[in-house]
Structure to design on (386 residues):
């Protein structure tokens, strides 16, 4: 199809379902057809088809960039009386009303509750380039929004951390091609009682991985690394990048979404800003480490846009003090897995909300940085805003 025809299809959907939303109409004119469809189906949702009961994974190729995007279509929105499209899977293709898209189902290969190889739709020729480990899944924090608790990645019946040596050896034995392909190792934790347990685990994983492979990057998603001395051990000595797991900023919402009265994850959001400040200053004073981004994981759709902008202003104030480093949000769209989870989604959540969040992010951090470094669907992060 020609670009003009694809634009007409986008505009037709926009006028049919979002005629009173100028941001949506503008996006239909300016974005690629596939980019518009991705957020359109992400907002509206569809009845799950395939392995999962809470969402459907799909893939499509962007006609402008040629890149493949891997993303999820969540469960349908709760009825609000608005006109809704018929989004469904037929004969291996996603349809929107009478429009046949080029979205096709895409599973995630090589996955278990304790480890998986991250699926990147543009790196299928190197399926073992990025490995995620969750070897200590027993979590006492019980966050309401935790995807892992809903999909089996968190097992509250397990008390011990699995031994890094046994697990890494088993993974590499099962996939002997993995050691030579491995470029990145990500550690998902969130469940260690103290920093000593965390650092011991990170050291053990690094030692076992590097016995057989030589990944270029290591990263850990965490909220318990707070001081310069701790960053010096995890980042300076062990070589990890730290992704600070904020999720949302509004404290009332944090108490609900992150079960703040139970665990440390839901503690005051100002403490997370301070973590970012300490980490950014640490990196900025050590450019030789070659790490120039501090990322805070952030879910679009829980905070109001006013709170999101306030959060961005806090990061911007930190960035103004830095020479070599930048603090940015790692952006995902909050996608409920069940009806109770919908309670923490903004009541004013809309397709316009997503485009406004995108515009706001770009105004503070730049469009290219957001597209390339904020966890986009072109890199296989299925809930990515980009």
């Amino acid at each position: 199809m020609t670009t003009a025809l694809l634009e007409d299809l986008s505009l037709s959907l926009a006028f049919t379902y979002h005629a009173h939303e100028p941001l949506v109409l503008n996006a239909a004119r300016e974005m690629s057809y596939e980019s518009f469809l991705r957020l359109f189906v992400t907002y509206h949702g569809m009845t799950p088809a395939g392995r999962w009961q809470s969402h459907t994974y799909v893939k499509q190729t962007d006609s402008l960039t040629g890149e493949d995007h891997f993303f999820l279509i969540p469960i349908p929105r709760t009825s609000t009386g608005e006109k809704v499209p018929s989004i469904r899977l037929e004969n291996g293709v996603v349809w929107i009303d009478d429009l046949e898209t080029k979205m096709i189902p895409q599973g995630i290969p090589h996955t278990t509750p304790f480890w998986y190889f991250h699926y990147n739709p543009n790196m299928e020729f190197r399926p073992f380039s990025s490995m995620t480990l969750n070897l200590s899944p027993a979590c006492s924090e019980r966050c309401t929004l935790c995807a892992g608790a809903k999909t089996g990645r968190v097992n509250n019946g397990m008390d011990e951390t699995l031994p890094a040596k046994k697990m890494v050896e088993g993974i590499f034995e099962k996939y002997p091609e993995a050691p030579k392909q491995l470029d990145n190792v990500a550690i998902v934790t969130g469940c260690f009682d103290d920093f000593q347990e965390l650092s011991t685990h990170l050291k053990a994983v690094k030692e076992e991985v590097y016995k057989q492979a030589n990944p270029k990057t290591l990263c850990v998603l965490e909220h318990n690394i707070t001081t310069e001395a701790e960053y010096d051990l995890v980042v300076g000595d062990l070589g990890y990048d730290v992704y600070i797991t904020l999720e949302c900023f509004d404290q009332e919402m944090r108490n609900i979404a992150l079960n703040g009265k139970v665990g440390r994850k839901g503690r005051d959001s100002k403490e997370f800003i301070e973590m970012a400040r300490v980490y950014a200053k640490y990196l900025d004073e050590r450019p030789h480490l070659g790490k120039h981004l501090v990322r805070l994981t952030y879910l679009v759709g829980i905070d109001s846009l006013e709170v999101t902008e306030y959060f961005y202003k806090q990061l911007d104030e930190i960035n103004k003090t830095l020479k070599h480093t930048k603090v940015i949000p790692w952006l995902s769209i909050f996608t409920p897995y069940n009806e109770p989870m919908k309670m923490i989604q903004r009541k004013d959540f809309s397709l316009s909300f997503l485009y406004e969040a995108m515009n706001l992010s770009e105004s503070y951090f730049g469009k290219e940085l957001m597209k390339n470094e904020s966890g986009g669907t072109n890199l296989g992060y299925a809930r990515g805003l980009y």
Remarks:
- The first strand starts at residue 55 and ends at 61.
- The mean pLDDT is 92.
- Residues 361 and 367 are 8 Å apart (CA to CA).
- The two ends are 23 Å apart (CA to CA).
